[in-house]
C-alpha cells in the first residue's frame, strides 16, 4: 500500500558527513574527493535503478560540472571552508509500488523539478529498488544559490537560508502528496497517500516506527 513518507536530513561535516561519499553511495559510482585524495568506490552497490542530475541552469561547455556528479559534489566540498559546514540537504522519499517504473521515474523527476530545481537548487536524484518492496528516492540538494558572471560562468554564491525553513518543508511534503496522487489517479489506482498525521486524519492508530532496510532484510530471512 502506498504511504506518504518524506524525510529531510542535512549532510554535514560536523556529523562526519561527506558530500562526495554520499553522492557516490547513492548513485553506486566511484568518486574521488579532490580535497582529501580519498576515493569513494560504491560501484558494487546494487539496487540503483535510475540516476540523474537536474539543474536550474542548463549545463554548457563552460559549465559541464553542473551535471557531472563527481565535479558537482567536489565543487560543493570546495565551497565550504568550515570544519562543521552543512554540505547538502537530502530528501528520502517512498515511491508508490502501485506505479510502473516509467511512472515512478517521471513522478520523482516532476516533483523534484517543480519543488526544488525551479527554486534554484541542483538536485542529484537516485531511485533505488523500484521493483522491490521498498522503492524509494534519495535526492541530494545543493544549499547555495547559483550565480552567473558576464562570461556565462556559473559558480556558487551565498547559502539561501530560507531553504531550511520548517514551514517550507511542510509545503514540500504536501506537494509530494499532491503530485503522487495525481500519478496514482492517472494510473487507475484507487489508493491515495495522505501527508497528514493520523490525529489530523481522525484515525485512531498508533504511528509505526520506520524500521529501515536492515530490519526489512532480516525479516525476509525469517529473523525476528
Short account of what is shown:
This protein has helices at 19-27, 69-79, 101-115, 166-186, 198-201, 213-220, and strands at residues 6-12, 30-32, 39-41, 48-54, 86-94, 123-128, 136-141, 144-148, 154-159.
Task: Describe, in plain words, how this protein is organized in 3D.
This protein is an alpha+beta fold and 224 residues long. The chain is built from 6 helices and 9 strands, in the order E-H-E-E-E-H-E-H-E-E-E-E-H-H-H. It has helices spanning 19-27, 69-79, 101-115, 166-186, 198-201, 213-220; strands spanning 6-12, 30-32, 39-41, 48-54, 86-94, 123-128, 136-141, 144-148, 154-159. The strands form 3 sheets. It has a 5-stranded antiparallel beta sheet with strand order 1-5-7-6-4, sandwiched between helices. The chain is globular, with a radius of gyration of 18 Å. The chain starts with 5 loop residues before the first strand and ends with a helix. Mean pLDDT is 91; it is low at 201-205.
Amino acid at each position: 500500500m502506498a504511504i506518504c513518507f518524506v524525510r529531510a536530513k542535512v549532510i554535514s561535516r560536523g556529523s562526519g558527513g561527506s558530500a562526495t561519499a554520499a553522492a557516490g553511495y547513492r548513485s553506486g559510482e566511484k568518486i574521488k574527493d579532490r580535497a582529501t585524495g580519498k576515493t569513494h568506490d560504491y560501484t558494487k552497490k546494487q539496487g540503483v535503478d535510475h540516476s540523474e542530475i537536474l539543474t536550474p541552469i542548463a549545463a554548457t561547455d563552460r559549465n559541464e560540472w553542473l551535471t557531472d556528479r563527481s565535479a558537482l559534489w567536489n565543487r560543493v566540498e570546495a565551497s565550504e571552508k568550515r570544519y562543521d559546514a552543512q554540505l547538502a540537504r537530502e530528501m528520502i522519499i517512498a515511491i508508490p509500488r502501485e506505479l510502473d517504473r516509467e511512472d515512478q521515474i517521471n513522478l520523482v523527476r516532476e516533483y523534484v523539478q517543480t519543488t526544488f530545481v525551479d527554486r534554484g537548487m541542483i538536485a542529484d536524484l537516485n531511485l533505488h529498488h523500484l521493483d522491490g518492496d521498498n522503492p524509494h528516492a534519495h535526492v541530494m540538494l545543493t544549499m547555495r544559490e547559483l550565480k552567473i558572471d558576464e562570461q556565462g560562468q556559473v559558480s556558487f554564491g551565498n547559502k539561501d537560508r530560507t531553504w531550511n525553513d520548517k514551514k517550507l518543508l511542510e509545503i514540500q511534503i504536501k506537494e509530494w502528496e499532491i503530485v503522487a496522487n495525481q500519478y496514482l489517479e492517472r494510473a487507475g489506482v484507487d489508493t491515495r497517500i495522505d501527508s497528514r498525521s493520523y490525529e489530523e486524519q481522525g484515525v485512531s492508530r498508533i504511528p509505526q516506527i520506520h524500521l529501515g532496510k536492515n530490519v526489512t532484510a532480516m525479516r525476509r530471512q525469517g529473523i525476528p
